[in-house]
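Quick start: read one record
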Amino acid sequence: MYTKDQRQEIIDRICRIIADTGKSLRQICEDDSLPHRDTINDWLNANKDFADQYARAKEEGYDYEFEQMEKDILNTPEDKDSILKARLLWDHRRWALSKKFPKKFGDKTHLEHSGDSQAPIVIFEPASKRPKK
């Protein structure tokens, strides 16, 4: 249905929109000039280069979303209700970004083991799991 050049043009357009606006594929494919979302998903599954390009565009889109969040916070009117609403929106959007792209926006966890490197690690079972005497 599409030539290779037409398909690449569509792919480039979609990735540019994602990177520049943070929109989802669902939102972008509402445009009648673009193929249906299922077609785009088929292309993603069949074309590793497109999948890589799409992943990079999504990362850029997440950065765009974060920049928009910062701009919105800075432009919030200074009355109490506006501040409370802005904080609620900030928390929600930050949480959503942490789920979409945890590597960059997720909570960082650091696990450290210390002690004698030659000593065995002792694992204690909760009392509820121990056999009764």
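Residues 4-105 form a domain with the Arc Repressor Mutant, subunit A fold (CATH 1.10.10.60).
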